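Reopening: structure tokens for the heme C complex, inputs below.
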Amino acid sequence: MAEQHNRFNDFMRGLTEASSQPVQPLPETVPFDKPAAQLGKELYFAPQLSANGTVSCATCHIIQQGGDDNRPVSIGIHGRKGELNAPTVLNSGFNLAQFWDGRAATLEEQALHPLVTPHEMGNQSVQVVADRLNADSKWRQKFIQTFGEPASPQAIAYAIAEYERTLITPGSRFDRYLLGDHDALTPQERRGWKLFQSYGCIGCHQGINLGGSMFQKAGIYHPLGVRESRWLGRYNVTHREEDRHVFKVPTLRNVAETAPYFHDGSVPTLEKAVTLMIEAQLGKQPRAQVVADITAFLKTLSAPPKDLLHGH
Ligand code: HEC
Ligand code: HEC
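Re-run output (same inputs, fresh job):
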């Protein structure tokens, strides 16, 4: 199972290292383990993964709506509110780590957290989830067919992660532009792309995901956001002073579909998020035309998820 994760990472490194550009188009496909991904898809949509059968991964990560839940903070089991904005699961296989603070190194490791988070799926332990699935002969059979053994925490995590790695969104207008179709972007969108580079957004939002490739402080020149965040980000993982308010730089792919913005969901519109980024991360005055052009460019990063499970 770990080998498959490495295979995906090697594939991704091949894409980025072969390129002399700071950003790369998404690939049309990725290597994945099809039987595991198929089971992972069923698990992803299964409310049986939550303690009372009401919440699935898809409750908070809606595949057809940008891979998030369109709320400032997520609402899980028993209507309980979390404190953070749900990031997209789309293209998440390309991130250097998972969660806003990067505390999960892999999608496998990440997938086990929501199962036992009290305000998400609310289980006592991941073993309880595996036992619940094995008590249902249909689920037990599916695991035996796929892995030759009943459900285990490890198999659940692996199957879900394999499904998530297939959730890629190639073919956006921006990717078509990168691949040589100059007219895929309007003049305003091309101006936005130029500004994105010359202003320095690309210093942090780079790689295949225009993000997801590094950790950076939120609020370099000025505090970021409409209120001081209680969330310390990377500091929670490293306990180093310089990591206060440091976050994984979020991907900008499909960002027009993932409002509201920032780790605390405090910013409702893309224009406002771009304005705050120009002030807080780059220390520049946000001119209205620049904000409009960059926002127009960001809207070209959307494409629907490709159904690799059927097209394979
Ligand atoms: C109640 C809502 C909720 C449920 C249910 C939920 N998530 Fe999440 N998910 C979140 C929130 C909020 C975060 C951000 C938490 C953080 O960064 O600490 C997150 C983060 C993630 C990330 C990290 C993405 C990134 O770029 O950092 C992935 C991947 C993910 N969830 C997948 C899943 C899977 C798979 C399931 C089902 C097993 C699931 N989620 C269930 C709300 C939810
Ligand atoms: C120094 C690094 C850095 C630079 C430069 C930077 N960003 Fe960001 N960006 C971040 C970080 C970190 C976050 C997450 C902040 C948070 O959640 O509190 C972020 C968040 C965002 C978001 C919100 C995404 C989401 O899903 O919530 C958008 C949109 C964005 N940046 C666009 C831009 C644009 C446009 C520029 C250039 C004008 C830019 N960024 C420059 C680091 C940077």
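Strands lie at 215-217, 246-248. The pocket of heme C (ligand 1) is lined by residues 49, 55, 57, 59-61, 74, 76, 82, 84, 86-87, 89, 92, 95, 98-100, 107, 110-111, 114-115, 120-121, 160, 164 (CB under 6 Å). Marking as resolved unless the reporter disagrees.
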